[in-house]
Write a structure and sequence with these properties.
alpha+beta; Rieske Iron-sulfur Protein; Naphthalene 1,2-dioxygenase Alpha Subunit, Chain A, domain 1; 2 domains; eight-stranded antiparallel β-sheet; four-stranded antiparallel β-sheet
Length: 346
């Protein structure tokens, strides 16, 4: 089950064009395209007559023609032409999904359209700040449930083993974690003081010697994450530190879109507070982060298989506190939404 009254990432902005195409979000098949004016359109991808996907049809101006019998639909999903004589049936329509373009991403609202408010989209600090650099990679297809990736992004400890050659270091194995519940998610974080920088960050930070390092892992409902990394010279960080002028900050934004119960499309990019116009640095960071995410994908795809076919119960550890709290609250939200929908249908 999924939370439907929420914004999910449907695509990168450049992925949606004038061509009809099918995307899948929350196990729902959706036909997406742009109008002649460039507006984003998303319609249920099934003609109400015989359920041929509209994405297999033709775009004609700002209408979509079914490829089977020519039923034609406007951008609101209403059939405006059908073969034969007589009036068009009132149920000759398809659901239209609200879309909104922001941060180079196309966001889709999967629930009640009347509740869609683009102001509720995940806020990304410094996105339009010219003093911050950005790097990104292609969306990744994961053969696992989206909550396994949410677990991963509330788990600073795993980097010591999964990313030993990039994000991990000895302190990431056993430094205690602090878990906080917010109004819209869970934060798991810790400061590691006077430690050697991890291999990936040694390439990009602007100072020598040991550092104070913050791991801030935050996931917001239903499946959006901010992983903030702060590296500042040793002695200048910590909860009460003032940070050094050479501090390095990387904000990693991660958006998990469930396509089915066992598949996820994963969008990501990073913002950094240094060298915004350095294309070589952006490429280095994108390549290294992509490699690290491939390590995550390999692990999580196997975890999906293991959890789906387990012969004995799995166990939880103290380090799983953040993930478990996130899952419990999200399930409570889904249950409440389901109950409200049931009451409205009665």
């Amino acid at each position: 089950m999924f939370l439907k009254n929420a914004w999910y990432v449907a695509a990168w902005s450049e992925e949606i064009t004038r061509d009809l195409q099918q995307i899948v979000v929350l196990s729902e098949k959706i036909c997406v395209f742009r109008s002649e004016a460039g507006e984003l359109i998303a319609l249920e991808d099934a003609c109400p007559h015989r359920k041929l996907p509209l994405s297999k049809g033709r775009i004609k101006g700002d209408t979509v023609e079914c490829g089977y019998h020519g039923l034609t639909f406007d951008c609101a999903g209403q059939c405006i032409w059908a073969p034969g004589e007589g009036r068009i049936q009132s149920n000759a329509k398809v659901h239209a999904y609200p879309l909104y373009e922001k941060y180079g991403l196309v966001w889709i609202w999967m629930g009640n359209p009347a509740l869609a408010d683009h102001n509720d989209i995940f806020e990304i600090e410094n996105y339009d700040d010219p003093t911050w650099g950005i790097n990104r990679g292609d969306a990744m297809e994961l053969n696992c449930n989206y909550l396994l990736m949410c677990d991963n992004l509330l788990d600073p400890t795993h980097v010591a083993w999964v990313h030993a050659g990039s994000f991990g270091q000895s302190a990431t194995k056993d430094t205690p974690l602090k878990v906080n519940k917010t109004n819209d998610g869970i934060i798991v974080q810790r400061w590691m003081l006077d430690v050697e920088p991890a291999p990936f960050y040694k390439k990009v930070i602007g100072f020598d010697g040991n550092c104070d390092r913050l791991q801030h892992y935050e996931v917001r409902y239903p499946s959006h994450a901010l992983v903030k990394a702060i590296f500042t010279p040793a002695g200048t960080g910590g909860p009460s530190g003032s940070l050094h002028k050479d501090v390095f900050i990387m904000d990693s934004y991660n958006f998990m879109t469930p396509t089915s119960e066992s598949e996820t499309r994963y969008y990501w990019f990073q913002l950094r507070n240094i060298r915004p116009d350095d294309a070589a640095l952006s490429k280095l960071m994108s390549d290294d982060v992509q490699h690290a995410f491939e390590e995550d994908r390999a692990v999580l795809n196997e975890v999906q298989k293991g959890m789906a076919n387990k012969k004995s119960p799995h166990i939880d550890l103290p380090i799983d506190g953040g993930q478990l709290r996130f899952r419990r609250q999200l399930q409570a939200m889904i249950n409440e939404e389901t109950q409200v929908d049931k009451q409205m249908a009665e």
